[in-house]
Amino acid sequence: MGDEEKRHRAITARRQHLKSVMLQIAATELEKEEGRREAEKQNYLSEHCPPLHLPGSMSEVQELCRQLHAKIDAAEEEKYDMEIRVQKSTKELEDMNQKLFDLRGKFKRPPLRRVRMSADAMLKALLGSKHKVCMDLRANLKQVKKEDTEKERDLRDVGDWRKNIEEKSGMEGRKKMFETES
Description:
The protein is an all-alpha fold. It is built from seven helices and no strands. Troponin I is the inhibitory subunit of troponin, the thin filament regulatory complex which confers calcium-sensitivity to striated muscle actomyosin ATPase activity.
């Protein structure tokens, strides 16, 4: 175990060393990238924003303000156009995602066959080997002794149901039905 433990420590130390070297390289790359961005920013500003010189007379100041307003209007128009393009592309993306979602959702369902299973088989399939309770429902039913009630005797004594219906048809039959009940 001592030999294996030394090897494990060496591997861990090597990993930590490699990780620190990678972090140092990444830090220098980040610094270079930051410097490159700053240089690009300065180049862009020097191209598009000449140094401001304020004229002395009022008419020259007004002319400068007009020029600045014209540049602001052009920049606002460009910004508005870009916003519209972004909104349009966002809408297209949402539509494409919806179509993709719809296509994923459509699949052909296989025809399913009806499977008849007893309650025991169903519980065994769901619970696996844990199933110990017997679900024989007929065995758990109580035996009920059927008692002869007056209604049942009357129903048996009535006989053919067609005769009974013919007797009760029409208004007289209904009248008889109410008279016999009371």
